[in-house]
Amino acid sequence: MLWNRWVQFYFHLPIIIRLLLSVTFLMLSFGYLIHLIEPDHFPSTFDGIWWAFVTGSTVGYGDYVPLSSLGKIIAILLILAGGGFVTFYMATLSAGTIKLEQDLSKGKITYKGTNHTIIIGWNERTKQLIEMFKDHNLDTDTVLIDHTLNKLSYQDHQIHFINGEPTSDKTLKKANIEQAKNVVITSDPTLTEEEADRQTILNIIAARGNNPSIHIISEILTEMQKKNATRAGTDVVLRSNNFMSSLFYQSLFQKDPQATDIIAETLEEQQYCSELIGEDLIHKDFYFCAQQFLVERKWLIGLVRENEIILHPDFTSPMKKGDSLIFLRPLDHAQNRVK
């Protein structure tokens, strides 16, 4: 009964482990056997095992050789059995490594890390966000979930790819969402705005259902779905259409349309940042803080107070302890992101 359990346990192991155990057992057995047959030429069991591994792997250093007929027969059996096992093991190990890399690129491998950021959707915004992660050397792993990609090279993008529907619990568990820190849900560019927002809301519900405490940032295209996204459980709603509409308006109706290009290009070279105010700025007004920040090439635009974002507050508004100031600064100097 016990023997059957061991056999079942052995055959349930991965083939690489089974081959490694088989090769090890074979070499140990032949090493001990040659030590018993020729104790003068193989004075210790370790010497016999060393000879078995060298001979079975076809390396053949020649520092130990059997001299008796029985010893030579043992060597022949070792070469026939051990050589085949070792060759098969190396071939299987190589094939397994290649298959693992292929499965990783095809999004079939489960992510095992923690405190990572999950991004849903592969598009230009996602690519830019990943590049910003790299440029600022952020100490966080990135997991991408997308159902439109068939393959994504880990070497080229340095992200863990999961292929599947982001509303599927199976897919989210493969991304280890239960131990993730953030989820960024981008809008699907292949859908209409209404369809994309509905899909985003379903993604929010699925993510929140699998991790009630995770921080969710989502992109919503239409105003009518903004409240629904909040009800679904997102922490932050980003409206990219608002900004683009403003630029279009300025380009159409202002006296100098070329200024829109300058504004857009300038904003592309900036990054939104936040910084907890120091003791020296408590009770100072917003105007005073703006002047102080300009000295460091920081363009102050608002503040965060008690989880509420206040843009362009009154210049006379006094700062309170615990406030965070929101500002823009060039990308090459930016360090802290708005959370």
TrEMBL record:
<dbReference type="Pfam" id="PF07885">
    <property type="entry name" value="Ion_trans_2"/>
</dbReference>
<keyword id="KW-0472">Membrane</keyword>
<keyword id="KW-0813">Transport</keyword>
<dbReference type="InterPro" id="IPR036291">
    <property type="entry name" value="NAD(P)-bd_dom_sf"/>
</dbReference>
<dbReference type="GO" id="GO:0006813">
    <property type="term" value="P:potassium ion transport"/>
</dbReference>
<feature type="transmembrane region" description="Helical">
    <location>
        <begin position="15"/>
        <end position="37"/>
    </location>
</feature>
<dbReference type="GO" id="GO:0005886">
    <property type="term" value="C:plasma membrane"/>
</dbReference>
<feature type="domain" description="RCK N-terminal">
    <location>
        <begin position="114"/>
        <end position="238"/>
    </location>
</feature>
<dbReference type="InterPro" id="IPR050721">
    <property type="entry name" value="Trk_Ktr_HKT_K-transport"/>
</dbReference>
<keyword id="KW-0407">Ion channel</keyword>
<feature type="transmembrane region" description="Helical">
    <location>
        <begin position="49"/>
        <end position="67"/>
    </location>
</feature>
<dbReference type="GO" id="GO:0034220">
    <property type="term" value="P:monoatomic ion transmembrane transport"/>
</dbReference>
<keyword id="KW-0406">Ion transport</keyword>
<dbReference type="InterPro" id="IPR003148">
    <property type="entry name" value="RCK_N"/>
</dbReference>
<dbReference type="InterPro" id="IPR013099">
    <property type="entry name" value="K_chnl_dom"/>
</dbReference>
<protein>
    <submittedName>
        <fullName>Voltage-gated potassium channel</fullName>
    </submittedName>
</protein>
<dbReference type="Pfam" id="PF02254">
    <property type="entry name" value="TrkA_N"/>
</dbReference>
<keyword id="KW-0812">Transmembrane</keyword>
<feature type="transmembrane region" description="Helical">
    <location>
        <begin position="73"/>
        <end position="98"/>
    </location>
</feature>
<keyword id="KW-1133">Transmembrane helix</keyword>
